[in-house]
Structures are given as structure tokens and as C-alpha cells.
Amino acid sequence: MQDSIFIGGGGENYGEKQGLKLKYANRHGLIAGATGTGKTVTLQIMAEGFSAMGVPVFLSDVKGDLSGLAAAGSPEFKLHDAFMDRAGKIGFDDYSYQSFPVTFWDLFGEQGHPVRTTVAEMGPLLISRLLELSEAQEGILNIAFRLADEQGLPLLDLKDLQALLVWVGENRAELSLRYGNISVQSVGAIQRRLLVLENQGGAKLFGEPALELADLMRTDLDGRGRINILAADKLMGSPRLYATFLLWLLSELFEDLPEVGDPDKPKLVFFFDEAHLLFDDAPKALVDKVEQVARLIRSKGVGVYFITQNPADVPEDILGQLGNRVQHALRAFTARDRKELRLAAETYRDNPRFDTEEAIREVGVGEAVTSFLAKKGVPGVVERTLVRPPSSHLGPIDAAARRRLIDASPVAGKYEVLQDRHSAYEILTKRAQDAAKEAEAAERAEEEAEEMEREFKAARRYSGSRVKRSSSRSSRSNTRGDTVGEALGKALVKELRGTTGRRIVRGILGGLFKGK
After folding, report:
1. Which of 107, 203, 230, 462 could bond 198 through an S-S bridge, CB–CB 3.0 to 4.6 Å?
2. How far apart are CA 108 and CA 210, in angstroms?
3. DSSP of 24-47, one letter per residue?
4. Please, are residues 114 and 104 in contact by the beta-carbon 8 Å criterion?
5. Where is this region: Disordered (predicted)?
6. Which residues pair with 379 in a beta bridge?
7. CATH classification of 4-114+220-407 is 3.40.50.300, yes or no?
8. pTM (predicted TM-score)
9. Distance (Å, rounded) from C-alpha 325 to C-alpha 383?
């Protein structure tokens, strides 16, 4: 089976050896089964097989035990005898222990190289899904992204988006005339969701240097494909962040990789563990996006494998595109369970030797019901399969060994230092500072103008006394004038003391206050 990845088979009560043909590996696949039935081991042996064939792999380590791919199995392992016995039963004659080239990644930068993208690259649709926004809030987010494009505002990290939303809120009256209603309540709701995401550690996803897809598609010096392991045990505490990140990565692969048609082997195989998180409460637009990616990304040479407990977790339109399947045991305790079991069995090509529904219910741990694409991409007949044992270590490696592998990685040092490039936050902050300076200058100029006006008015009200003439005639005239003036003043005072005078005063003062 040089052109296939050996999965298992053989032995009493089992069919022929089962293998996943490399030329059909980009037709996607499914690994399903109840908890504890062996899904993780199946994922591990498939990753080993692809790596050995020179195909890079990306997978998420949800439970924290897939790091063992980086270490060889050992005869001292407690299941060694069982592994050797199983290898003999299924005719796995060249079974041996070996390690595989692994690159560790971690969104939080703790158990692997930091993995980031920019806000602009993720886009409004996925960010709306991540933040669980309403339709109105998603509309405002789309306006914000449109404005960022029009005004040359790079959106790299969360503070860029937060600053842009502040600007949108402050200018909502003007923007609403062009783009539709923008309510301050909706802007505030988006800001609160961003704050929650930031508190959950989601801010570490956004920034630079952003992940280069080429770093996920490396091969080792001996030609084996590198297995990229995303530490997801902590990330699962924010399941929507986990699902959105993986969907973004799929979308980036779809958009950036060139068309290759049907290659002899995939350029990359992508395992999406806990796939139900992608579809739980997902809006139709998002499900349609996943269906489009699944349908078209195979032409980019990428195979996508969904891992979940029940095939019913995957929408029917997407499930129909998953040609390579490994179905572990399903439990059927309720009427609903029995219905889902029956539906799962109906998706396989019948084998006259056994009842598929009964086989899915009865297979034990490490066994599975399998079907892989055969010649011309036709689904193979379903078979009961004894899954082969892994060659790498079963279980996690210790922290010291992980750290040594991270330090020796081909991308060591490339993503560790966060960069804070000039972007929307800095641009909008400078605009605000410039506007504040202009407002301050205008206010100062206005105050100076008011002060000058007050001084001018005060100058107009001022009049100095005339200089007295020194001639005797003038002195006499002034003396007579003063006498006449004093006489008139005395007469006026006397008159004002009377009734008529009081009426005159009230008239004058009333006129003044009325004029006020």
C-alpha cells in the first residue's frame, strides 16, 4: 500500500486491509464516535501516515495528549504487548516505534509559537460570529470595516478596532446619512463584547507578525511532512474563539493557495477536532461559507477531516462531501440515539457480510467501521476494521521536552516578539490630538479677541478733564457758569422732591430697566 495510508483491518471477523489512498485524501473525511472509543488514536495514526508520506498536517490538541507524536513509542509502555499483538493480527509486518517532526503552536504563546492574525484578515463576518453580534450590530461592524478601507486605517489588533468604533460613534450623525442608522447603543454593545473577548485572552489572537501559511506546509530534511499541533486545551475554555480561529485558517488556505486540481497527494491535511463547535447555533451565512470552503478547497490540494462524536453534528450538505470515513462506536440508549445511528449507517455503502447499523453499535475500543474512496473516487464498501497501533508515544510528552522542541523549531524566534505597527489606533489618536490642539488654539484666539474688544470699549468710555485757561476773563466766566449751574442744580433738586419729580424719576429708571 505504497500509495495509501494504512489504517488497519485483517484478523478474524474483519475484512481486508483498509487504507486511505493519497490521491483521494483531499476529498475530505470524518472521524466520529462516542467519547472513549478511540477517535484520538485514529487521528494520531492518520497524522503519522500523512507525515511519513511527505504531507504536512495541521491538528488541534484538544485534550493535551497529541504532543506524543513528537516522541517514539517505547517497549516499556504498558500497552506494548497489546500493540505488538494487534500489529500481528492485522498483518502490520513493518510496525516499529518512531517519532515524527512536530511544530507546536499556541494562541496564548505558552505551549508553542504564538499564532496570530490581523483584525482585517479575519473580517467582519467571522468577528461578528466570534462576538455573537446581532444583525444590527453586525451591520455597524461592516460599516466600520468599510470606513477603514476608505480612509486607509489598517486594522491590525483589537485596540485598532476599538478606536475605530469610538470614531464611528462620535461621527454617527454624519455617517448615518450615508450608511444607515448607527446607534450609540449598538456601538457600545460591540465595545462590551470586545472587552469580554479581551478578558478571555482573545486579544492575543490579533496582531503582528501574522501567521504565514507557508510555515504550516513545511517538510523535514528527510522529506516527512511536519505535524503542526495547536495547543487547544486552554483554548477550549472559549469554544467560539477556538471554532472561529480554525474557520479563519481554513478560509485563508482557501483564498491564498493556488489551484492544483487533483494532485497525487495533498499539500496539507487539516484536522478539525470538536467540529460540532463550528456549527452550534451558527447562522446560515456561516454554514454556507463552510460548505463553500469544503467544496472548493480540495482543488487547492487541502484535505479537511472533521472529528466529532456523532455524524449528525455536521450539516448534511457538508457531510455528503466527506468521502473517507472512520466511524467508531455510537451509543443508542434513546429513541433519538437510535434514529441518529440508523441515519449514520445509511450513509455507508452496504456490505452483505454484516449489518452496518449493528456493527457501529457493537465495535469495541480501537475498532471502527470504515469506508475509504476507491477507484475513480467511488466510496468503498463498508468494513469492520481493527485500527493499527500508533508508532509514536501514546499520551503527552513532558514540558521540558516540549520546550526543547519549540526552541529547535524551524520557526523559532519568528513569531515570539509582538510588533505594534503604525495603524488605525495611532492614526485616530493623532487626529484626536490635532483636533484638540486646534480647538484649544481657536478657544485661545476667541478669548484674546474678547479681551481686545473689552479693552476697546473701555477706551471709548474714558474722557479726561479739560485744561483750565489762565486768563481772568475765562476765570470770571467759569465762576459765573458755576454760579448759574449751581442755581439750576438746586432748583432741580427742589423740584425732584415733589410729586412731579418722582414721576419723572420713575419714568427714567423704568425706561432704563425696560431697555435692559
Report:
1. 203
2. 14
3. GGGG-EEEE--TTSSHHHHHHHHH
4. no
5. 457-483
6. 373
7. yes
8. 0.83
9. 11
